[in-house]
Specification:
The complex is a heterodimer of chains A (about 290) and B (about 325). Chain A contains ten helices and two strands. Chain A has a two-stranded antiparallel ribbon with strand order 1-2. In chain A, helix 4 crosses helix 7, helix 5 runs antiparallel to helix 7 and helix 7 runs antiparallel to helix 8. The longest helix of chain A is centred in the middle third of the chain and has 34 residues. The N terminus of chain A is likely disordered. Chain B folds into two domains: about 220 residues, Rossmann fold; about 70 residues, ACT domain (Alpha-Beta Plaits), CATH 3.30.70. Helices cover about 30% and strands about 25% of the residues of chain B. In chain B, the strands form three sheets. In chain B, strands 7-8-9-4-10-11 form a six-stranded mixed β-sheet, with helices on both faces. In chain B, a hairpin with an 8-residue loop joins strand 13 and strand 14. The chains are: A mainly alpha (about 290), B alpha/beta (about 325). At the A-B interface, helix 1, helix 2 and helix 6 of A face helix 2 and helix 3 of B.
Chain lengths: ~290, ~325
Amino acid sequence: MSPNEGLSQRQLDERRGRPSAGWALLASELTVLYRRRRTWAMLAALAAVPVLIAVAVRVTSSSAPGRGPQFLDQITHNGLFVGITALLVSIPLFLPLTVGVVAGDTIAGEASHGTLRYLLIAPAGRIRLLLIKYIGAGVFCITATLAVVVAGTLIGMALFPVGPVTLLSGDAIGVGESFVRLLAIAAFVTVSLLGLCAIGLFISTLTDVPVGAMAATIVLAVVSQVLDQIPQLDWLHPWLLSHYWLDFADLLRQPIAWASFGDNALLQLGYIAVFGALAYGRFVTKDVLS
Amino acid sequence: MTAQGRSDLAIETSGLSKRFASHAAVDAIDLAVPSGSVFGFLGPNGSGKTTTIRMLLGLATASDGWMRVLGVDLPGRLSSVLPRVGALVEGPAFYPFLSGAANLSRLDSADRYAPRSTRRQRVDRALERVGLTHAAHKKVHAYSLGMKQRLGIANALLSPRELLVLDEPTNGLDPQGTREVRSLVASLAGEGTTVFVSSHLLSEIEQMCTHAAVMSAGRLMAQGTLDELRRAGRVHARLQTPDAATAREILTARGLTVESAGTLDDTVVATLPDAASPDSVAAEDIVAALVRGGVRVRGFSIDGASLEDRFVELTGEGFDVAE
């Protein structure tokens, strides 16, 4: 190191003081995400799913047991099942769709606006930007799941009686604990989506066209579910992103069986590690020419 | 390669290259931008100016060569240099659904050295400097091209900078805006900031800069102070006479290079030898020689090398640019 470099570093420190931890960028990222009309449109669409289900069940009020999604026939007895039913309906397509839009937009969206180069020369730091983008997409997963659960619970309480919930194991739990179980299910679904977020983030570093990254992410979510339906590929199933997506019924037993939650979390963690590393490898060396 | 940095240079590169596939967008350039200068980076469209700027700012990796910005080797310690550099690269870019002030706050929050406590104040000050205070809370999608350009310059001014890199800063601005940018650059330079301005417009560089470099097809053709660049250009003598044929003979005999006949029969254009060479001829001696030789002189002028001639000489003209 030449004396010149040492001097400039000292000058820099004198002039600007020590760098901040940099959480301001995360706050700014969330502000930008939730100031977009698109984000609110997607959350409103998700909230509309339980409302549609509840209204349909209320109007017809004659659902034959065993038809339609699981728990559907329970709704008329207990409004707390609206949120759970709506989550079951949303998991295969609606939730991956909205998460795919947000995750696919992370880097590619900035690139297409041209703001990526300005964030990088600010300088945001490439690794820091990638982390903040991922956290932002993760926060969206939480809000997306909560939009379904909260809207479902509210409309369920408005249209149907609410009382103690009979679990799959036959035990009954009070309304208060039912809310805890609902939140546990919401946590399960949120965790399920985090792997998809990492895939979306990686694809987003590959292109400057956000729509392409969004579509590719959503297609992968669908392909994973299709493969999971083919019995000949059962050796592959435990490795599929969507393998545990619908396995939250264990959270409706007494006592709660956390095994599927743990398996799911481990699988999603694996996807986050692999695709996070790929995104890092790609983005850190990428020439930003947009 | 050993990097012998000179502390009086704000930007220094050696053999800096960028290749895309087999095509060299930037071909082994050695830039030397003195600290405190207003440095014009001149070249036709597609000559590698923006690619060079991208490398200097760490947006693109260099294929070869080394560079040093504000005394720091790049790209190794990029994060310690960039907070001291403000930049406008390849046009402004903002989130259309946010206001001008919100856009600046967002980009400022990305800089860990920019204190949060003064953010609002610095954003307001930057907007004021480019004359956008009245539109601060308008959404950017309602901005005109010129307003976006001003906002882009405001972004470069959010923190006190030691180096400003402005890529085509007057694009999309009306003449009034262009003048404002010029005076802004002058006042920043007066505060001691080194300003590196790229442009394909010669007149702009001539009015703003103390130094310039000329790029053509990825190569650095010349650099130095504006005077040095002008001096390196050739001086032309333009003669109007009905006796063009005789005049050509006399001029050639005096060591001038006569250009092939122009479109006008009565005009002769000749290049004078370099003023520093022993063959140098004074303009008045040429006229005396012509008159002695019986040439009837109707008009005689010496065209001091303009920067424009020099620019065209270095970068080629018209279709030559594509080569």
